[in-house]
Amino acid sequence: MASNPPQACCFKGYPQTGTIQGKMTKMFGIETYVTGSSPIEDRVLVICTDVFGLQLKHNKLVADALAAGGYKVVVPDILFGDALERLDETVDFVAWREKHNVTKTRAIVDKFMEGLKKEYNPKFIGVVGYCFGAKYAIQQIHATKGLAEVAAIAHPSFVSIEEIEAIGSKKPLLISAAEIDTVYTAELRHQTEAKLKEIKAIYQQDLFGGVEHGFSIRGDESIPQNVYAKEKVLFDQLYWFDYFFKKSKKCCKD
Protein backbone atom coordinates (compact mmCIF):
# COMPACT_ATOMS: atom_id res chain seq x y z
CA MET A 1 0.00 0.00 0.00
CA ALA A 2 1.32 3.44 -0.95
CA SER A 3 -1.24 5.15 1.29
CA ASN A 4 -3.73 3.82 3.82
CA PRO A 5 -7.52 3.72 3.29
CA PRO A 6 -9.48 6.87 4.27
CA GLN A 7 -9.61 7.27 8.04
CA ALA A 8 -11.37 9.61 10.47
CA CYS A 9 -9.09 12.52 9.49
CA CYS A 10 -10.45 12.32 5.93
CA PHE A 11 -13.95 13.09 7.21
CA LYS A 12 -13.27 16.33 9.04
CA GLY A 13 -12.21 19.84 8.12
CA TYR A 14 -13.00 23.53 8.31
CA PRO A 15 -15.27 25.83 6.28
CA GLN A 16 -13.53 27.69 3.47
CA THR A 17 -14.12 31.30 2.47
CA GLY A 18 -14.59 32.65 -1.02
CA THR A 19 -17.12 33.22 -3.78
CA ILE A 20 -17.87 30.50 -6.32
CA GLN A 21 -17.12 31.48 -9.93
CA GLY A 22 -18.26 28.49 -11.96
CA LYS A 23 -21.53 26.64 -12.47
CA MET A 24 -23.05 23.19 -12.18
CA THR A 25 -24.02 21.31 -15.32
CA LYS A 26 -24.26 17.75 -16.59
CA MET A 27 -21.44 16.21 -18.57
CA PHE A 28 -21.77 12.65 -19.87
CA GLY A 29 -24.71 12.13 -17.52
CA ILE A 30 -22.69 13.17 -14.45
CA GLU A 31 -23.31 16.30 -12.37
CA THR A 32 -20.20 18.45 -12.86
CA TYR A 33 -18.84 21.78 -11.68
CA VAL A 34 -17.31 23.71 -14.59
CA THR A 35 -15.17 26.81 -14.30
CA GLY A 36 -12.65 28.79 -16.35
CA SER A 37 -12.68 30.61 -19.68
CA SER A 38 -10.11 28.48 -21.50
CA PRO A 39 -11.59 26.28 -24.27
CA ILE A 40 -12.03 22.73 -23.03
CA GLU A 41 -10.57 21.48 -26.32
CA ASP A 42 -7.29 23.24 -25.50
CA ARG A 43 -6.33 22.35 -21.92
CA VAL A 44 -8.45 20.96 -19.15
CA LEU A 45 -7.93 19.83 -15.56
CA VAL A 46 -10.19 17.19 -14.03
CA ILE A 47 -10.47 17.20 -10.24
CA CYS A 48 -11.20 13.99 -8.36
CA THR A 49 -12.53 15.26 -5.06
CA ASP A 50 -12.28 14.31 -1.42
CA VAL A 51 -15.30 12.84 0.40
CA PHE A 52 -17.01 16.25 0.57
CA GLY A 53 -17.34 16.44 -3.19
CA LEU A 54 -19.53 19.22 -4.52
CA GLN A 55 -21.90 19.68 -1.59
CA LEU A 56 -19.59 22.13 0.15
CA LYS A 57 -17.72 24.81 -1.72
CA HIS A 58 -14.09 24.04 -0.93
CA ASN A 59 -13.50 21.80 -3.97
CA LYS A 60 -15.19 24.43 -6.15
CA LEU A 61 -12.96 27.17 -4.75
CA VAL A 62 -9.85 25.18 -5.58
CA ALA A 63 -11.21 24.56 -9.08
CA ASP A 64 -11.74 28.31 -9.50
CA ALA A 65 -8.17 29.00 -8.37
CA LEU A 66 -6.76 26.54 -10.91
CA ALA A 67 -9.03 27.94 -13.62
CA ALA A 68 -7.64 31.41 -12.94
CA GLY A 69 -4.31 30.00 -14.10
CA GLY A 70 -5.67 29.55 -17.63
CA TYR A 71 -7.35 26.14 -17.57
CA LYS A 72 -10.85 24.89 -18.07
CA VAL A 73 -11.48 22.95 -14.85
CA VAL A 74 -14.14 20.30 -14.46
CA VAL A 75 -15.12 18.57 -11.23
CA PRO A 76 -17.36 15.54 -11.78
CA ASP A 77 -19.48 14.21 -8.94
CA ILE A 78 -17.60 10.97 -8.35
CA LEU A 79 -19.66 10.43 -5.16
CA PHE A 80 -22.98 9.94 -7.05
CA GLY A 81 -24.83 12.61 -5.06
CA ASP A 82 -23.71 11.20 -1.72
CA ALA A 83 -21.07 13.75 -0.72
CA LEU A 84 -20.73 14.66 2.93
CA GLU A 85 -21.92 18.01 4.27
CA ARG A 86 -20.69 17.85 7.87
CA LEU A 87 -17.05 18.62 8.57
CA ASP A 88 -17.16 17.33 12.14
CA GLU A 89 -16.12 13.68 11.63
CA THR A 90 -19.50 12.40 12.88
CA VAL A 91 -20.16 10.19 9.84
CA ASP A 92 -19.79 6.43 10.03
CA PHE A 93 -16.76 6.50 7.77
CA VAL A 94 -16.36 2.71 7.58
CA ALA A 95 -19.89 2.35 6.20
CA TRP A 96 -19.34 5.30 3.86
CA ARG A 97 -16.15 3.73 2.49
CA GLU A 98 -17.94 0.46 1.78
CA LYS A 99 -20.69 2.29 -0.09
CA HIS A 100 -18.14 4.21 -2.15
CA ASN A 101 -16.10 1.22 -3.13
CA VAL A 102 -13.30 1.18 -5.66
CA THR A 103 -15.28 -0.56 -8.41
CA LYS A 104 -18.23 1.82 -8.28
CA THR A 105 -16.12 4.96 -8.01
CA ARG A 106 -13.69 4.02 -10.74
CA ALA A 107 -16.57 3.31 -13.11
CA ILE A 108 -17.77 6.90 -12.70
CA VAL A 109 -14.31 8.39 -13.21
CA ASP A 110 -13.62 6.21 -16.25
CA LYS A 111 -16.99 7.11 -17.78
CA PHE A 112 -16.27 10.82 -17.35
CA MET A 113 -12.73 10.63 -18.72
CA GLU A 114 -13.79 8.54 -21.71
CA GLY A 115 -16.59 11.00 -22.49
CA LEU A 116 -14.20 13.94 -22.21
CA LYS A 117 -11.73 12.33 -24.57
CA LYS A 118 -14.34 11.26 -27.10
CA GLU A 119 -16.44 14.42 -27.21
CA TYR A 120 -13.80 17.14 -26.80
CA ASN A 121 -10.44 15.42 -27.33
CA PRO A 122 -8.49 18.14 -25.44
CA LYS A 123 -4.92 18.79 -26.47
CA PHE A 124 -3.89 18.44 -22.82
CA ILE A 125 -5.61 16.68 -19.92
CA GLY A 126 -4.31 17.03 -16.40
CA VAL A 127 -5.90 15.34 -13.42
CA VAL A 128 -5.90 16.44 -9.78
CA GLY A 129 -6.76 14.25 -6.81
CA TYR A 130 -7.36 15.21 -3.19
CA CYS A 131 -7.43 12.55 -0.45
CA PHE A 132 -10.17 10.09 -1.54
CA GLY A 133 -9.84 11.23 -5.15
CA ALA A 134 -6.07 10.77 -5.37
CA LYS A 135 -6.39 7.06 -6.12
CA TYR A 136 -8.51 7.73 -9.18
CA ALA A 137 -6.23 10.51 -10.40
CA ILE A 138 -3.29 8.11 -10.22
CA GLN A 139 -5.22 5.54 -12.24
CA GLN A 140 -5.68 8.11 -15.01
CA ILE A 141 -1.92 8.37 -15.59
CA HIS A 142 -1.48 4.63 -16.02
CA ALA A 143 1.33 4.20 -18.56
CA THR A 144 -0.87 2.56 -21.21
CA LYS A 145 -4.50 2.87 -20.07
CA GLY A 146 -4.60 6.33 -18.50
CA LEU A 147 -6.38 9.12 -20.36
CA ALA A 148 -4.53 12.02 -18.70
CA GLU A 149 -1.03 13.27 -19.43
CA VAL A 150 -0.08 14.66 -16.03
CA ALA A 151 -1.31 14.32 -12.43
CA ALA A 152 -1.05 16.25 -9.17
CA ILE A 153 -2.33 14.80 -5.90
CA ALA A 154 -2.41 15.97 -2.30
CA HIS A 155 -2.47 13.92 0.93
CA PRO A 156 -3.54 10.75 -0.92
CA SER A 157 -5.51 7.86 0.52
CA PHE A 158 -6.02 4.25 -0.56
CA VAL A 159 -3.41 4.31 -3.34
CA SER A 160 -1.73 0.95 -3.91
CA ILE A 161 1.96 0.57 -4.65
CA GLU A 162 0.93 -1.30 -7.81
CA GLU A 163 -0.93 1.81 -9.01
CA ILE A 164 2.19 3.87 -8.43
CA GLU A 165 4.30 1.35 -10.33
CA ALA A 166 1.84 1.33 -13.24
CA ILE A 167 2.41 4.99 -14.16
CA GLY A 168 5.79 4.14 -15.60
CA SER A 169 8.42 6.64 -16.64
CA LYS A 170 6.49 8.92 -18.99
CA LYS A 171 3.58 10.51 -17.12
CA PRO A 172 4.56 13.12 -14.49
CA LEU A 173 3.24 13.01 -10.93
CA LEU A 174 3.30 15.76 -8.30
CA ILE A 175 2.58 14.79 -4.67
CA SER A 176 1.89 17.34 -1.91
CA ALA A 177 2.13 15.71 1.53
CA ALA A 178 1.37 16.68 5.10
CA GLU A 179 3.80 16.06 7.94
CA ILE A 180 0.97 15.11 10.31
CA ASP A 181 -0.79 12.29 8.48
CA THR A 182 -1.88 8.81 9.57
CA VAL A 183 -3.06 7.97 6.05
CA TYR A 184 -0.02 8.96 4.01
CA THR A 185 2.54 8.30 6.71
CA ALA A 186 6.28 8.98 6.58
CA GLU A 187 6.92 5.28 6.00
CA LEU A 188 4.46 5.10 3.11
CA ARG A 189 5.82 8.35 1.71
CA HIS A 190 9.31 6.84 1.60
CA GLN A 191 8.01 3.62 0.04
CA THR A 192 6.29 5.67 -2.64
CA GLU A 193 9.48 7.63 -3.31
CA ALA A 194 11.46 4.40 -3.59
CA LYS A 195 9.02 2.97 -6.11
CA LEU A 196 8.95 6.17 -8.16
CA LYS A 197 12.74 6.18 -8.22
CA GLU A 198 12.81 2.49 -9.19
CA ILE A 199 10.53 2.99 -12.20
CA LYS A 200 12.38 6.18 -13.19
CA ALA A 201 9.20 8.20 -12.94
CA ILE A 202 8.97 11.93 -13.57
CA TYR A 203 7.90 13.07 -10.14
CA GLN A 204 8.13 15.66 -7.40
CA GLN A 205 7.09 15.17 -3.79
CA ASP A 206 6.80 18.08 -1.38
CA LEU A 207 6.38 17.76 2.38
CA PHE A 208 4.67 20.58 4.29
CA GLY A 209 5.72 20.73 7.92
CA GLY A 210 3.26 21.35 10.74
CA VAL A 211 0.10 20.75 8.70
CA GLU A 212 -2.39 17.89 8.86
CA HIS A 213 -3.99 15.57 6.33
CA GLY A 214 -6.49 17.57 4.27
CA PHE A 215 -4.61 20.87 4.61
CA SER A 216 -4.66 21.74 0.91
CA ILE A 217 -8.42 21.57 0.56
CA ARG A 218 -10.15 21.97 3.93
CA GLY A 219 -7.60 23.23 6.45
CA ASP A 220 -8.16 25.76 9.23
CA GLU A 221 -7.78 29.15 7.53
CA SER A 222 -7.25 30.87 10.87
CA ILE A 223 -3.77 29.30 11.03
CA PRO A 224 -1.29 31.17 8.79
CA GLN A 225 0.80 28.06 8.22
CA ASN A 226 -2.22 26.28 6.75
CA VAL A 227 -2.99 29.21 4.46
CA TYR A 228 0.59 29.33 3.23
CA ALA A 229 0.69 25.58 2.59
CA LYS A 230 -2.63 25.57 0.73
CA GLU A 231 -1.60 28.49 -1.47
CA LYS A 232 1.79 26.91 -2.14
CA VAL A 233 0.15 23.67 -3.26
CA LEU A 234 -2.00 25.59 -5.74
CA PHE A 235 1.07 27.47 -6.98
CA ASP A 236 3.01 24.22 -7.37
CA GLN A 237 0.17 22.50 -9.19
CA LEU A 238 -0.23 25.32 -11.69
CA TYR A 239 3.51 25.50 -12.28
CA TRP A 240 3.58 21.71 -12.76
CA PHE A 241 0.76 21.65 -15.26
CA ASP A 242 2.01 24.75 -17.08
CA TYR A 243 5.46 23.24 -17.53
CA PHE A 244 4.20 20.02 -19.06
CA PHE A 245 1.51 21.75 -21.10
CA LYS A 246 4.13 24.00 -22.69
CA LYS A 247 6.40 21.00 -23.19
CA SER A 248 3.61 19.09 -24.94
CA LYS A 249 2.96 22.01 -27.29
CA LYS A 250 6.64 22.22 -28.15
CA CYS A 251 6.75 18.48 -28.86
CA CYS A 252 3.74 18.78 -31.13
CA LYS A 253 5.43 21.55 -33.11
CA ASP A 254 8.58 19.48 -33.40
Structure write-up:
By secondary structure, this protein is of the alpha/beta class. The chain has one domain: Rossmann fold, CATH 3.40.50. Helix content is 37%, strand content 20%. It is built from eight helices and eight strands; from the N terminus they run βββαβααβαβαβαβαα. An eight-stranded mixed sheet has the order 1-2-4-3-5-6-7-8, sandwiched between helices. The longest helix has 30 residues, at 224-253. It is globular. The termini are far apart. The mean pLDDT is 93.
- Total domain count: 1
Give me the strand/helix succession: EEEHEHHEHEHEHEHH
CATH class: Alpha Beta
Oligomeric composition of the shown chains = single chain
**Termini separation:** 40 Å
How many beta strands in the DSSP annotation?
8
> Quick check: average pLDDT?
93
**Structural category:** alpha/beta
Could you name the CATH homologous superfamily?
Alpha/Beta hydrolase fold, catalytic domain
Q: Beta-strand level of the residues, as a percent range?
A: 15-25%
In CATH, the architecture is 3-Layer(aba) Sandwich
Major β-sheet, in short?
A: 8 strands, mixed
Uncertain parts: none
Pick out its properties.
single chain, 254 residues, alpha/beta, Rossmann fold, eight-stranded mixed beta sheet, 8 strands, hydrolase activity, AB_hydrolase_fold, Dienelactn_hydro, Dienelactone hydrolase domain-containing protein
Write the layout of secondary structure elements.
Elements: E1 23-27, E2 30-35, E3 43-48, H1 58-67, E4 72-76, H2 93-99, H3 102-119, E5 124-130, H4 134-139, E6 150-154, H5 161-165, E7 173-180, H6 186-198, E8 203-212, H7 215-218, H8 224-253
Parallel strand pairs: 3-4, 3-5, 5-6, 6-7, 7-8
Antiparallel strand pairs: 1-2, 2-4
